[in-house]
Amino acid sequence: MRMMWLAALCGAVVGGCAKNADQVAATYISPVTYEAYTCPQLAEEAQRVSSRAAQAAGVQDSKATNDKVAMGVGLIVFWPAMLMTKGDDETTAELARLRGQMDAIEQASIKKKCGISVRPVTPVAAAGTETAVAAR
């Protein structure tokens, strides 16, 4: 019985760990949102969204790492440390939304023949940003 409780607790904690940024899927955003944008406006918006997504991905990866450390400490040393895992939260939702926006901007760009390509973002620290937008 005791092993069953321990297994259930471990399963709940593992399920509550934050995902790595590369595991967060995009939320659907309609490209109609960007229908009225001109090509320069689409490029500017793609740059803004891409920079914010890179920052959010960095925060998401940091949370995932912290959760894994808390899990390791909890399993090896002190089980109450496992309660410190945060799991997925508003950062995960924001990253998914931003990735959806990037997809929608790229689709709008294709429709308007702007030649804007939004590449997957690389996580960066909140202090810096990285360009992930290119014209074809």
Entry summary:
The chain is mainly alpha-helical and 136 residues long. Helices cover 55% and strands 4% of the residues.
What does this 3D model show about the protein?
Helices cover 55% and strands 4% of the residues. The protein is mostly helical. The chain has one domain. The chain has a two-stranded antiparallel ribbon. Helix 2 runs antiparallel to helix 3 (90-112). The longest helix has 38 residues, at 39-76. The chain is elongated. The protein starts with a helix and ends with a strand.
Content of β-strand: under 5%
Low-confidence stretches: 4-9, 11-15, 126-132
Number of helices: 3
What is the share of helical residues?
55-70%
The secondary-structure element order is HHHEE
Task: Find the count of extended strands (DSSP E, 2+ residues).
Answer: 2
Principal-axis shape equals elongated
Distance from N terminus to C terminus (CA atoms, Å) equals 61 Å
Whole-number count of domains: 1
- Rg value: 19 Å
